[in-house]
Design brief:
mainly beta, two-stranded antiparallel sheet, 2 strands
Length: about 55
């Protein structure tokens, strides 16, 4: 089948839904909450965030 006019070539799907690298979060400009967080979430992964109530999850 011939290419459609104006078709755009895309990269192959990797299944990665979220990819973050070296994240840092500071609360109230002085409280370091996260440093160096890297995370890759792929289709079908199950992720859980655990912590006490009111901990800011």
């Amino acid at each position: 089948m011939p290419d459609s006019a104006g078709a755009v070539e895309t990269a192959p799907a990797t299944g990665v839904l979220l990819d973050v690298n070296n994240v840092e979060v500071i609360y109230d400009e002085v409280i370091l909450v996260l440093r160096g967080l890297s995370l890759q979430v792929k289709r079908g992964d199950l992720i859980a965030l655990l912590g006490a109530n009111g901990a800011g999850k």
